[in-house]
Amino acid sequence: MNPPGGTGTLEGNMSDHVLTIGELARRAGVAASALRYWEELGLLPAPARISGQRRYPESAVALVGVILILRDAGFSLTEQKALLPLPGAGLDEWRRLARRKQAELDEQIARAQAARDAIEHALKCPHEDLRDCPNFSGLVAARLSGQSLQEAHRH
């Protein structure tokens, strides 16, 4: 994924086709209220207004796409805000935030894998009552001693 540099503005020639908030919402697959909220937060630059109504340039569709991808990748609204006003935000800042997010995702994946492994063991366990299973009892004891499921499952 390219860093979103340069895509964070809604500059455009107003003679180009412009979109109402409803049109942008439909094209991007989001609620108009989300667009207004992102605008309020500064993620989506304030558009031009014609007769008091928001008018977005075509480039806003791609910008909303970037916001959605960043959200799907796990970036918080605050992190997105640090990345999106971006004519001045540099590649180094993007990479720093991306590496931090990647480490967070690696940790989430490890926790989810430990949980999956514990459930898989429970499904295969020959004991009718998991509390009779020595492996499960070991997990319980380790968890009660302050270890995470991830740490406890390694033992």
Order of helices and strands: EHHEEHHHHH
Pick out the low-confidence regions: 1-9, 11-15
Please, how many helices?
7
- Structural class by secondary-structure content: mainly alpha
The name of the CATH architecture of the largest domain is Orthogonal Bundle
Main beta-sheet strand count, sense and barrel state: 3 strands, antiparallel
Strand order of the largest sheet: 1-3-2
CATH fold-type name of the largest domain? Multidrug-efflux Transporter Regulator, Chain: A, Domain 2
How many distinct folded domains? Answer: 2
* CATH domain class of the largest domain: Mainly Alpha
Radius of gyration: 23 Å
Helix content: 55-70%
Number of strands: 3
β-strand percent reads 5-15%
Query: Which overall shape is indicated by the principal axes computed on the Cα atoms?
Result: elongated
In short:
It is built from seven helices and three strands, in the order βααββααααα. β2 and β3 form a beta hairpin. The two termini are 38 Å apart.
Task: Itemize the secondary structure elements and their pairings.
Elements: E1 18-19, H1 21-28, H2 32-41, E2 48-50, E3 53-57, H3 59-72, H4 77-83, H5 91-124, H6 134-144, H7 149-154
Antiparallel strand pairs: 1-3, 2-3
